[in-house]
Amino acid sequence: MKAIVCEEFAPIDQLKYREFPVPTVKPGHVLIDVLAAGVNFPDGLIVQGKYQVKPECPFVPGGEVAGVIREVGEGVPHLTPGRTVVALPRVGGYAETVLCPMSHVMPLPDFIPPVEAAGLITAHATAHHALKQRANLQPGETLAITGAAGGTGIAAVQIGKAMGATVIAICSTEEKLAFAKSQGADILINSSTSDVKAELKKINDGKGVDVVYETVGGDLFHACTRAMAWKGRLLVVGFAGGTIPEFPINLALVKGFSVVGVFWGSFTAHEPQAFMDNMQELVAWYQQGKVKVVVDTVFPLEQAQQALEHVTGRKVMGKVMLQIGEQ
């Protein structure tokens, strides 16, 4: 099969598009012919050896796909060949065929196109898990989102609105802010031209923000720590800006807020049933029009390097996808 192969941890431009062995099906797993794969910021970190998870080289990156089941292993009673599914293989998705545990495979409803379905997993499911399980976001609370125009940021905008929050989008350009507004953001802050800390502290009658969905790191993280409301929850989602901040822990003590880590990959491994329950709710919200996958660009498989560079360059508004099989 054709695949994008990481032969050793190295810059993204060292990825190879070449032949790679088709995985062998094994008990409890499903072999899937891939139609589309999502391209996510962590994919770029994984191939460079900069992520928490370091697969054994050579490997195929890509953690979310939609496709058609080719073969099922022993002990898989509920899935059959020919069924269209969405799946979370962790790695292996940038390929024509991928192997995935049955616990991370879900039948795809007819009303979701495969390209959108593959983009509904990582970004939306991360935001959903963060806001539901980690922040316990409540209707009427304020939710600030940094990097709000990116794949997981815009998902958090949509899901925050679905959960009844007042959503504050923080972006670096007016174009990105307009995009966030089109997806439901109530309050817009331009991080390039505004004092983010001062603007956030005005929220909630001067009490600060209840929940922050923080994806950027660096100076934005520090601004958010100084604008938290009492009993607020600062969600640490990622560091797309490239700088992992050092946190002055006394701020959490004095201001009475929580700093909460969000590692969705670990959540899916430790709580697979909760993950599947979340996906069922997301699919229902999709059908109701409360959330949607906004596709920025679709690349063919052989252009996965360009797709990753597009994502890691923080140029994206929405999701970047790879189209692999015939839709």
Q: Which features would summarize this protein structure in a list?
A:
327 residues; alpha/beta; Quinone Oxidoreductase, Chain A, domain 1; Rossmann fold; 11 helices; globular
Quick description:
With 327 residues, the chain is of the alpha/beta class. The protein is built from 11 helices and 15 strands. The protein has 2 domains: 149 residues, Quinone Oxidoreductase, Chain A, domain 1, CATH 3.90.180; 143 residues, Rossmann fold (3-Layer(aba) Sandwich), CATH 3.40.50.720.
- C-alpha Rg, in Å? 19 Å
N→C terminal distance: 18 Å
Total number of beta strands? 15
Shape: globular
Number of domains: 2
**What share of residues is helical?**
25-40%
Mean of all residue-level pLDDT scores: 93
- Can you tell me the CATH topology of the largest domain? Quinone Oxidoreductase, Chain A, domain 1
Number of helices: 11
The share of residues in extended strands comes to 25-35%
Low-confidence runs of at least 5 consecutive residues? none
CATH level-1 class of the largest domain: Alpha Beta
Just name the CATH architecture of the largest domain: Alpha-Beta Complex
Largest sheet: 7 strands, mixed
Name the CATH superfamily classification of the largest domain. Answer: Medium-chain alcohol dehydrogenases, catalytic domain
